[in-house]
Structures are given as structure tokens and as C-alpha cells.
TrEMBL record:
Source species of the chain: Pelagicoccus enzymogenes
Family: Belongs to the EamA transporter family.
GO cellular component annotations of the record: membrane
Stated name of the protein: EamA family transporter
Coiled coil: none
Xref: InterPro entries: AA-Vitamin_Transporters, EamA_dom, EmrE-like
Membrane topology label: Multi-pass membrane protein
Signal peptide bounds: none
Amino acid sequence: MIFLIAVSLIWAFSFGIMGRLTGLDSTFVATIRLSIAFLCFLPFFRYRKLQGKEAIQLFGIGALQFGVMYVSYIKAYAFLPSHLVALFSVLTPLYIVVAHELAKRRWSWALLACAALSIAGASVIKFSQAPEGSFWIGFGLMQIANIAFGLGQLLYRSWKHRRSDIADSEAMAALLAGGAVLSLLGFALFGDASKTAPSPEQWYVLLYLGAIASGLGFFWWNKGAALSSPGVLAACNNAVVPLAMAASLFVFGEAKNITTDSILKLSIGATLIFAAIVWGKRLSKN
């Protein structure tokens, strides 16, 4: 669990730092970040310890957990400020709980009510912002990112339990390769080549996010996920949210751009979303 807590602290500031990459194509940013992370772990990759299909499995898990997640998550910054991107990542644990229940062939309509409560929270926040249709586009992109990241964690946890003899560092390159290739495919299909010229400052940001937030962060996160129960994993997915929101609002200065009334509505909406998560966890335990 210590790995999950450490990563939460690293990622808390990543949401605000991501705002420094405004103007760059989202699929380009995802590709660069994951490629840097891949190069960091390539020396540790042990292909000969994997069976043929296992390398493909890791590649696929990485494409989902890192590729789909990053393309959607980074694109959301075009529609939402970083503190809302951080807030809407809170729904990841709910998807982890739902996926785990479905895998066990269990289902409760109350879980659907949890999802509805979380959407109600988002609706309250919507009315604290300037009216614009792009809000729901950003919210939807974050849900795609949440689902991809949550499912990826469960899939890797299951895979690692079957191959506990393989160190996380030895498998990480295959996961990151899958994410990088998926992001590159996204750039080839939907990217804007005119938005691929980072400034010197943005290159420093990309290097940090690629090597530390993505490389070391994902490595420690998946290592912690493999050692934790689904319940603990879901709870730790929430740890980063209040830290990230505080960093975005007060360290990176986004609080200057919202009114007291907006902060009140943001607090009410966040409370509803957190209530949905707590309710979902209790239902899962029962």
C-alpha cells in the first residue's frame, strides 16, 4: 500500500503541471510521455521469461490502461480546468467495484444508483461554471479514462497473480509499449501535426511527466495494485483526488479564476461524488 500512497503524492501535482502543456496535441503528449516511460524500463524487460501469448497480453493491458486512458485524460484538458479533471478521476474506484462485481457474476441495481449519484454531483458542478457544452465532453472523456485505467489495474492484478515469479519491472516495458503504440495510433488517426512543437519549458515538463509521473508512477502503482485487494485498490484511487484538487486550485492558481459561489457548488458536487464512492464500497462489502 505504501507504493500507492507514494504515487498519489506524485500524481497530485501532475494534474496542475499538465496545464503547462496547453496548445499541444493530446495524442502527441500521450505518445511522448509513454515513449519516455517505455525507454526508462526497456533495460529491465525480460522477454525470455514470458510465454508468447503473455507478452501480447501485457501489450493489450497496457494499451487499455495507459494508452486509452492517457489519450482520453489529456484530451479532457481541452474542455476542463485541471481541478475538475482531478475531481472527475474520483469515479475510477466505482468502475473498479462494478468490474469486480461483474467478474464475480454479481450485480446490484444499487450500484447503478451510485453511478447516478456521481453524475448528479457532476451536474451541480456544471452549473458553477460558465454555461458551455464542452463541459460534458470533458466529463465523458474522463469517464473513458477512468474505465480504461480501472479495468487495466484489475487485469494486471489478475495477470500478476498468475505469474508472481516475474518482477513488475520485468513486465513494465511491455505494458508501456502497448500504451505508446495505442497513443501513436491515436495521433496518426486524430492528431494535429501543427501542435507538435513543444517549447523548451514544455520539453522539461514532458520529461518529468514521462520519467517520473508515468514511468515511476505507473510502475509503483501496478506493483501496489498487485499486492492489494480490490477494495484497498479502489480506496487508494481516491487518495490522489483531494491532494490534486488542492494543488491545482491553490498551488497552480486556479482558485483565482472562480468565485466563492462556484467553490461552494464545487464542494457540494464533490461531496455527492465522494458519497457515491463510499456507498459503492459498502455495497461491494455486503
